[in-house]
Structure formats: C-alpha cells, structure tokens
C-alpha cells in the first residue's frame, strides 16, 4: 500500500472514528438520562439533538434511528427455552463446582454401614460432615474430595438445564397461556415434579457414574480402581453390565429428583413471590438468597430418605430393587439411616441452591438486558 493510498483512505478512517465517537457519546448520555429519570425516554432535548446529529451524519431517517436504538435499550420481558436452558446449565454447573466436596462427603456417609469390632461396638469410619471431609483429604488427598466432578458436570449440564428450562413452559401449559394472576402452589409443585422426572430419565447415566466414582474410597495397595475416569466409567459399565445398566436405580432416582425438584423449584418460586409482596423487598439479591436457602432446607427434609436409597442402589449392586433396599436398610439400621448425612446434605444442598439460584438470576439478566446485581 502506497502513501498515496493511505492519504486517500485517511478521510474514511476519520469518518468511521467520528461516527463511533458520536454514537458512543450518545449512548453514554442516553444511559445517563435513563438512570437519572428512572425510565427510558426519547423526548429529552439532549437525546433529540443526538439523534439529529447521527441521522444527519449517517443519512438515515430519524424515525428509523429512534426505533432501532430504543429497541436495543428496552429490556426484554422473557427469554426463550434455549436461553433458559443455557442459563440453567451454566448456573447448575457453577454450583456443582463449588459444592462437589460436600456432595462426596454426603455420598460416603449415606453408603457407610456399621462396622462391627471385636468388643461388640460399632465403629463408623466417617463421622459427621467435617470429619468425613478431613478423613477423605487425609487418606486420598485433596483431589479425593473432587471425585466424580466431571460426571457431576455432565449431569448438571443435562439435568439442571432441562429441569429448570422446562419448568416455566410446563407451568404455563398446566394453567393455560391465558391465565392471569398468581399460579396456585399445587400447579407449581406438579410442574416441578414432571420436569424433575423428565430431566433425570435423560440424565440418569451421568448420575450413576458420578455416584460410583464418589463411592470409591482408599483402596489397598495393588488393587486397581474400577474406573480410570468418567468417560472410562461409561464405557466400562456398558461393556461389563450392558447399556441398560446405565439406568440402574432409575426408579428411586425419578422419585428422589422429582420430589427434590418440586421442593426446590416450587418452594423457591412461591417464597420468592411471597417475599416480593412485602414492602421494601423486590426482585433483589436478598430475596433470591432467602428463597434459595428455604428451598434447600425443604428439599433436604423431603428428599433425604429417597436420596439415601438412590445412593445405595447406585453404589451397591447387592440390592434387588428399590423396595428390597428400603426394607434391608430399615431392618439393619433403623429409620434414622434414611437421614444419614443430613447435615452435610443440607450444607451441600443449601449452598448449592444459593449459588445456583443467585447465578441463574444474574445470568438471566444478561439475556434480559438488565443490570447485574439489581
């Protein structure tokens, strides 16, 4: 390129730079006006002057510029199913990354059986949430706390995206698209039950692999692990046990996830709706925090028994079916066995719900073109 070419192109570069300067200044000024007045407007004198400058500069009708710019500024009312799926999957995966150690501790406590000793006492290997975490870290290293994280992310990407992404469409289908007013709680519960069941039917193989990887503790020297990793686990299970084995424990898993999903989504939806009606509260981070904590508590209280059965069915192949697992656990360990790992489960699920719902609400605002942390 010669110096003559550069001289010829210089005015065009200047023109582009000037147009960007004008539009950037106008955008900044418009956002400032909107922020000050608390509403979108195109009637202010500064905004009209800016429009006239840009329309004259770009040789566009002012009406076209007004419609285009204001369409970009106005927040959207709702987002599509695909966008909701993406938001939900991202939020669920982020929450999973933050809480995998707590989930590993929960699974170990649920799978633990009473170990008889010579003097007739029963000595459990894992004691409490913190004790389980420290035991795993001491015997298997810090990485032992993150066993099954890849399968967990696989699960949340599919299960989390589907159960939350389908919730609003199913809820609307149940009440009808022309419904006006607050949706009844029982309709929310039914919608969450359905979406939880549908989602886990698709994601059950990922849940199975996650539990099997998490259930492996410290092995004796020279004893190889069953699976080298998540991908190897999928192929090994199919090769050794058949494709249908990937859906082992599907019955209790459907029951558990449908119930927990109903406890989580329906309670979060209902509590958030109730809190927002209290003077001084709105669709804020505090509202999301309170609603998500309550949702986690309800989920653990209601879903813990089926969660224990599900974990044992997936982690131990000696049980014939769900009823057999339930009866044997009840006979040998009593009713409290179904609430083993309750504290770590609540710690994990409460934390998981807070992280997931807060992340979900903020990520959705990106698609809705709203400000974050509002």
TrEMBL record:
Keywords: Membrane, Repeat, Transmembrane, Transmembrane helix, Transport. It holds the Pfam family Mito_carr. It is found in: Membrane. Gene3D superfamilies: Mitochondrial carrier domain. InterPro entries: MCP (IPR002067), MCP_dom_sf (IPR023395), MCP_transmembrane (IPR018108), Mito_Metabolite_Transporter (IPR050391). Its main location: membrane. It is a multi-pass membrane protein. Solcar repeats lie at residues 79-173, 183-274, 283-366. The keyword Membrane applies. SUPFAM superfamilies: Mitochondrial carrier. The chain crosses the membrane at residues 285-306. Belongs to the mitochondrial carrier (TC 2.A.29) family. This is Uncoupling protein. It comes from Brassica cretica. The lineage of its organism: Eukaryota, Viridiplantae, Streptophyta, Embryophyta, Tracheophyta.
């Amino acid at each position: 390129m010669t110096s003559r070419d550069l001289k010829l192109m210089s005015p065009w570069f200047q023109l582009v730079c000037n147009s960007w300067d004008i539009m950037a200044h106008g955008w900044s000024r418009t956002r400032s006006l909107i922020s000050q007045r608390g509403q979108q407007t195109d009637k202010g004198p500064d905004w009209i002057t800016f429009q006239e400058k840009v329309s004259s500069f770009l040789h566009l009708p002012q009406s076209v510029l007004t419609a285009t710019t204001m369409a970009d500024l106005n927040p959207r009312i709702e987002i599509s199913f695909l966008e909701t799926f993406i938001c939900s999957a991202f939020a669920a995966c982020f929450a999973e990354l933050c809480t995998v150690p707590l989930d590993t501790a929960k699974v170990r406590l649920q799978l633990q059986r009473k170990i008889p000793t010579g003097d007739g006492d029963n000595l459990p290997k894992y004691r409490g949430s913190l004790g389980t975490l420290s035991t795993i870290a001491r015997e298997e290293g810090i990485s032992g706390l993150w066993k099954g994280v890849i399968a967990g992310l696989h699960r949340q990407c599919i299960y989390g995206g589907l159960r939350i992404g389908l919730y609003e469409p199913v809820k609307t289908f149940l009440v009808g698209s022309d419904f006006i007013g607050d949706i009844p709680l029982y309709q929310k519960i039914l919608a969450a039950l359905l979406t939880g069941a549908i989602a886990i039917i698709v994601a059950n193989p990922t849940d199975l692999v996650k539990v099997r990887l998490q259930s492996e503790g410290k092995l004796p020297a020279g004893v190889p692990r069953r699976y080298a990793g998540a991908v190897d686990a999928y192929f090994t299970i199919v090769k050794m046990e058949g494709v249908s084995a990937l859906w082992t424990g599907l019955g209790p898993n459907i029951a558990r996830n449908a119930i927990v999903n109903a406890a989580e989504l329906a309670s979060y939806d209902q509590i958030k709706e109730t809190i927002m009606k209290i003077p001084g509260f709105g669709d804020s981070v505090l509202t999301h925090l309170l609603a998500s904590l309550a949702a986690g508590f309800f989920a653990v209280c209601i879903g813990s028994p089926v969660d224990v059965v599900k974990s044992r069915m997936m982690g131990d192949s000696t049980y014939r079916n769900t009823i057999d697992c339930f009866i044997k656990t009840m006979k040998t360990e009593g009713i409290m066995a179904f609430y083993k790992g309750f504290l770590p489960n609540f710690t994990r699920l409460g934390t998981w719900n807070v992280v997931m719902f807060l992340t979900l609400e903020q990520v959705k605002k990106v698609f809705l073109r709203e400000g974050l942390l509002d």
